[in-house]
């Protein structure tokens, strides 16, 4: 399209479309910067963090924010800023692998349920319904109860709890795409069912799935933090935000920073991810983009 | 050639014998009950299509034209009657392998919907070429380019996605794609309607040339009698799921026998001109057909016995033996036999 336009138009058009995304959505830009900041913290935690996150110190217990410890220390004298920076690592890594499990499981289960009919579909639908019947947190707790605690167990528990919502949306997309004319046209051409699925159905559900992933990252972080908060997720002294909030709970009246700082970090990341997810969806969803 | 009842041609390519297609739909107006009623989209259709023929199927919206195509292509099974391809049931032939799929190509009414939005035009046209192994892999780009050129599109279009093309361009891509498999039968549902006159003329010329040169059998649905007479030797006029008149296009259009055919003809006085006056009355719902002849409610020549039974599609006698109409009181030469009461009424 571009090369068909007269050469004078090309240089003026390119920057305008590129700039406009960030200028038109200042909140999106801000949220993206915040989210990327967390990712950088997670990636380079050892370089950024001023202290060892699990270094306890009897001299510096419950130091208020300011001074040597920018965000204060907790009841063991561990530096809260360092723990938050390392905590971003756990939050994002757990979310990433949990989403991987959830999206893969949801893709398989949802595609199968959307493409089969009769008894098989019935069984698959009841399976999805039963996963969906429990809220993600309750299901994750149930899985933890079976597997036990630990970072890997949290990943599995949160991942399994996300399979239900992913399968439901994937199935809806598969049904919507398979009812389209180009799928029938491929069948008319006697293209085999498997090829039709691979070539015509899956590419058309990939985009909505990607949007789902961006939207559900924050849910995965929230559920994993909730597990830790309840004391059944990762084990102390791992610098996990949920765990830190839980530990500070008893001292809220005289050391509010102990729960408040990790709580704020969690809220900031969730809000930033939600805005980024919304922005991506609105910007790139073909249905919202209009007939371009 | 379309003929009712027995024909003398050796073996027609397609033959529909008393085909009925009933869709089960929710009873209108019932919000809570799930009671279904049958909607006869096709009701006793008889049609023969000879090899190399070109047949136009015309009729108002909802008269069952697309449903007829779906039956011809084996996409839906008729609820009653038989649909044959070279003397064998169509769904059986389809199930046997890709030969039927290669021979019979389809251009959809909704051309954009029939193209995968995530594939480029080049990939879309290459798909049938590759699937039917029409040409070696190395020749694919040249072949795609040639097909695009054939429908009047520049080669650059191959790198674009359907969403970046106009409605008319998408229609041409759909035609190019249908021609890719080198079919012997082309079935087109409103392939040129809604296009500007010059584009339409270009595509019609292309189709007519293909039909002449490659002995393509053409089944062409259209609303436009001008298109029908330009492109097709034969015409079948449908009304509410039934073919009410068939015969050579020019004979039928010059001297329609069925009052509905005459009304259609009058509504479109000039080739390529828009319809000037609508038919009187509303097309009845197929769920609630009038008793007797289904056109009786809108017919200006209606007689009392038209409300009693349904006329069958019967052949004319004498010089117009290739014509047929489903009317008790046809406008031109009367059918040989006095009209029998239709057994399907
Ligand atoms: N899948 C379906 N389920 C129920 N009813 C259907 C279905 N497909 C078609 N019909 C009904 O069958 C009748 C004939 O439809 P069809 O699509 O064949 O009409 P058409 O002649 O192609 O009309 P148009 O010119 O508008 O395309 C209509 O009354 C329609 O409502
Ligand atoms: Mg139609």
TrEMBL record, chain A:
InterPro entries: BP-dependent_transpt_permease (IPR050366), MetI-like (IPR000515), MetI-like_sf (IPR035906), OppC_N (IPR025966). Keywords: Cell membrane, Membrane, Peptide transport, Protein transport, Transmembrane, Transmembrane helix, Transport. The keyword Repeat does not apply. GO terms for biological process: peptide transport; protein transport; transmembrane transport. The chain crosses the membrane at residues 27-49, 90-115, 127-147, 217-234, 254-280. Residues 88-277 form the ABC transmembrane type-1 domain. It comes from the Bacteria. PROSITE patterns: ABC_TM1 (PS50928). It is found in: Cell membrane. GO terms for cellular component: plasma membrane. Its main location: membrane. Pfam families: BPD_transp_1, OppC_N. It is a multi-pass membrane protein. Belongs to the binding-protein-dependent transport system permease family. This is ABC transporter permease. It comes from Cereibacter changlensis JA139.
Automatic annotation (TrEMBL), chain B:
GO terms for molecular function: ATP binding; ATP hydrolysis activity. It is found in: Cell inner membrane. Keywords: ATP-binding, Nucleotide-binding, Transport. Residues 17-265 form the ABC transporter domain. It is a peripheral membrane protein. One of its GO terms (biological process) is transmembrane transport. GO terms for cellular component: plasma membrane. Belongs to the ABC transporter superfamily. This is ABC transporter ATP-binding protein. The lineage of its organism: Bacteria, Pseudomonadati, Pseudomonadota, Alphaproteobacteria, Rhodobacterales.
């Amino acid at each position: 399209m571009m090369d068909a336009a007269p050469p004078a138009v090309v240089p003026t058009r390119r920057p305008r479309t590129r700039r406009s995304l960030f200028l038109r959505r200042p909140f999106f830009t801000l949220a993206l910067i915040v989210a990327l900041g967390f990712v950088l913290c997670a990636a380079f935690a050892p370089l950024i963090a001023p202290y060892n996150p699990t270094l306890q110190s009897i001299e510096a217990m419950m130091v208020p924010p300011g001074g040597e410890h920018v965000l204060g220390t907790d009841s063991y004298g561990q530096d809260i800023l360092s723990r938050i920076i390392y905590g971003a690592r756990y939050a994002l890594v757990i979310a990433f692998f949990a989403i991987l499990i959830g999206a893969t499981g949801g893709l398989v289960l949802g595609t199968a349920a959307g493409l089969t009919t009769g008894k098989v579909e019935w069984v698959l639908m009841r399976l999805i319904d039963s996963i969906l019947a429990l809220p993600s947190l309750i299901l994750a707790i149930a899985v933890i109860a079976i597997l036990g605690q630990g970072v890997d167990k949290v990943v599995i528990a949160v991942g399994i709890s996300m399979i239900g919502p992913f399968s439901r949306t994937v199935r809806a997309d598969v049904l919507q795409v398979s009812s389209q004319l180009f799928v029938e046209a491929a069948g008319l051409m006697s293209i085999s069912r498997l090829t039709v699925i691979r070539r015509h159905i899956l590419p058309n559900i990939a985009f909505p799935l990607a949007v789902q992933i961006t939207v559900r990252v924050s849910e995965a972080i929230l559920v994993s933090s909730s597990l830790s908060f309840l004391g059944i997720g990762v084990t102390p002294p791992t610098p996990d935000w949920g765990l830190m909030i839980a530990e500070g709970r008893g001292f809220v009246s005289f050391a509010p920073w102990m729960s408040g700082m990790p709580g704020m970090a969690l809220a900031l990341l969730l809000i930033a991810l939600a805005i980024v997810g919304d922005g991506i969806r609105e910007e790139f969803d073909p249905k919202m983009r209009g007939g371009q | 050639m379309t003929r009712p009842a027995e024909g003398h041609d050796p073996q027609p390519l397609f033959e529909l014998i008393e085909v009925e297609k009933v869709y089960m739909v929710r009873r209108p107006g019932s919000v809570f009950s799930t009671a279904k009623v049958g909607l006869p989209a096709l009701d006793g259709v008889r049609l023969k299509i000879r090899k190399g023929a070109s047949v136009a199927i015309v009729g108002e919206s909802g008269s069952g034209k697309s449903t007829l195509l779906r039956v011809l292509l084996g996409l839906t099974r008729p609820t009653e009657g038989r649909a044959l391809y070279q003397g064998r049931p169509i769904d059986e032939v389809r199930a046997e392998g890709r030969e039927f799929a290669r021979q019979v190509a389809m251009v959809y009414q909704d051309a954009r919907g029939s193209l995968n939005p995530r594939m480029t035009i080049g990939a879309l046209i290459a798909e049938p070429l590759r699937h039917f192994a029409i040409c070696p892999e190395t020749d694919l780009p040249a072949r795609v380019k040639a097909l695009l050129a054939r429908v009047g599109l520049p080669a650059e279009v191959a790198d674009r996605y359907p969403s970046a093309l106009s409605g008319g361009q998408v229609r041409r891509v759909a035609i190019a794609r249908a021609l890719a498999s080198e079919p012997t039968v082309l079935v087109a549902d409103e392939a040129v309607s809604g296009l500007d006159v010059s584009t339409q003329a270009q595509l019609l010329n292309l189709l007519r040339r293909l039909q002449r040169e490659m002995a393509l059998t053409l089944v062409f649905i259209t609303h436009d009698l001008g298109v029908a007479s330009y492109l097709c030797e034969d015409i079948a006029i449908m009304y509410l799921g039934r073919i009410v008149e068939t015969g050579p296009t020019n004979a039928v259009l010059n001297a329609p026998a069925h009052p509905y055919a005459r009304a259609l003809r009058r509504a479109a006085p000039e080739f390529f001109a828009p319809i000037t006056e609508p038919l009187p009355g509303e097309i009845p719902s197929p769920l609630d057909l009038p008793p007797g002849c289904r056109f009786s409610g809108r017919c200006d020549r209606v007689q009392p016995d038209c409300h009693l039974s349904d006329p069958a599609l019967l052949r004319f006698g004498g010089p117009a033996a290739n014509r047929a109409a489903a009317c008790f009181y046809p406008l031109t030469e009367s059918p040989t036999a006095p009209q029998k009461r239709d057994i399907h009424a």
